[in-house]
Design goal:
α7 links the parallel β5 and β6. α2 packs parallel to α9 and α12 crosses α14. The chain has 14 helices and 12 strands. With about 375 residues, it is α/β, with parallel strands linked by helices. The protein binds pyridoxal-5'-phosphate.
Length: about 375
């Protein structure tokens, strides 16, 4: 069903539950795990692990709509959404192509679980379309990508990858967490299945763990069959909290993106920062592809501090910005990928991807960009060796 409302209106109103009892303006929360059933085959059977309780069903309409998909499922974490979506689309003996730059948890899932089930995989050498084509084998079933990537904000050309996949009868899956539905809608570029760690922008306040997957009705039905077995449904209470968070998705991410654009430019000019990685900068190697396929450039960036800056002192000297593991909250946070998200990789693996020992990842929040810049500069100045 096509929805005529604009994105901002859908953020607020799509999939809301009408309070027919008291006419309150927010969706009521239904915590029941049991609903009437009189034995009829065609009777609806709402149950949390069937992903079909009222709050789950209604919020999934909002999420599907914001990604221009037909249907969505909501999970207890991003990894639950990722692992369930992958495992429902593969069997023993199949082969999947993965982009080389991936979220650390996804990489770990592949490397620790796939061998047990006889699932084959390859990581691409580079991120150009021909790097994906080069990995296609007789038993390849799908391509899994993540763009912009973590932590170096590398860009994969969505249209090229989806057309390679279609020519070879492969499914495509994308982790769209970094862009959020505000800044990129991969289904519009031919990608089949879109995944989010809703712990990040969809939640946006660093207080919810959740995940989501969006696709066609048919593909979601297939994922749902496995999802019922794996049991990664989100509790209705958290579903309700996520709905509240998502009403402000557009205003938050817009502000975060504006801050990121300004900070990226200012940091790029700073003498103690040797390099800034942000797709919105002209100097980014895939700036033109990002411009073509993204609605805007997103609120994540990374930068290399100069050799003369002590990273640990820098992190401790920040006053407003918080060093933290996660990202995408309304608070600006920084992270040290070498020791956190990419700490499980070998030095050689990090070198190949270009993750250096002075690399800082920054997730822009909604504070004043002037205060944020001032905080970064004073922390840099306090940590010159
Ligand atoms: C955080 C994150 C995940 C995993 O999500 P969880 O909610 O922590 O399970 C997956 N992909 C990306 C890009 C992430 O940032």
């Amino acid at each position: 069903m096509a929805n005529k409302n604009k994105f901002s209106t859908r953020c607020v109103h799509e999939g809301e539950i009408k309070d027919t009892m008291y006419q309150g303006i927010v969706s009521p929360l239904f915590m029941s795990t049991t609903y009437p059933w009189f034995g009829g085959d065609s009777e609806k059977k709402p149950y949390p692990r069937y992903f079909n309780t009222p709050n789950q069903e209604f919020l999934s309409k909002k999420i599907a709509s914001l990604e221009n998909g037909e249907k969505a499922l909501i999970f207890t974490s991003g990894m639950a959404a990722i692992s369930t979506s992958i495992m429902s689309n593969v069997k023993t003996g199949d082969h999947i192509i993965f982009q080389n730059d991936l979220y650390g948890g996804t990489r770990n899932f592949i490397q620790t679980e796939f061998d047990k089930f006889g699932i084959q995989y390859s990581f691409t050498g580079g991120l150009n379309p021909e790097d994906f084509s080069a990995q296609i084998k007789k038993n390849t079933v799908g391509i899994y990508i993540e763009t912009p990537s973590n932590p170096l904000l590398k860009i994969v050309d969505l249209k090229s990858v989806s057309s390679i996949a279609k020519q070879n009868n492969l499914w495509t899956m994308i982790d769209n967490t970094f862009a959020s539905p505000v800044n990129q809608n991969p289904i519009d570029h031919g990608i089949d299945i879109v995944i989010h760690s809703a712990t990040k922008y969809l939640g946006g306040h660093s207080d919810i763990s959740a995940g989501a997957v969006i696709s066609t009705k048919e593909k979601i039905e297939n994922i749902l069959n496995s999802a019922k077995n794996f049991g990664g449904n989100l509790s209705d209470y958290t579903v309700w909290l996520l709905e509240r968070s998502m009403k402000t998705l557009l205003v938050r991410v817009k502000q975060q993106t504006e801050n990121a654009k300004i900070l990226a430019k200012m940091l790029d000019d700073h003498k103690n920062i040797s390099k800034v990685y942000y797709p919105g900068l002209q100097s980014h190697p895939s700036h033109s592809i990002a411009k073509e396929q993204m609605n805007d450039f997103g609120a994540m960036m990374s930068f290399d501090l100069n050799e003369n800056i002590d990273v640990y002192t820098f992190l401790k000297s920040l006053k407003i910005i918080k060093p933290g593991m996660s990202l995408a909250g309304v608070e600006t946070t920084v992270n040290f990928p070498m020791k956190t998200s990419h700490g499980l990789m070998t030095q050689q693996e990090r070198d190949i991807q270009g993750i250096g020992d002075k690399l800082i990842r920054l997730s822009a929040g909604i504070e004043s960009h002037e205060d944020l810049y001032e905080d970064l500069v004073q922390a840099i100045n306090s940590s010159i060796k």
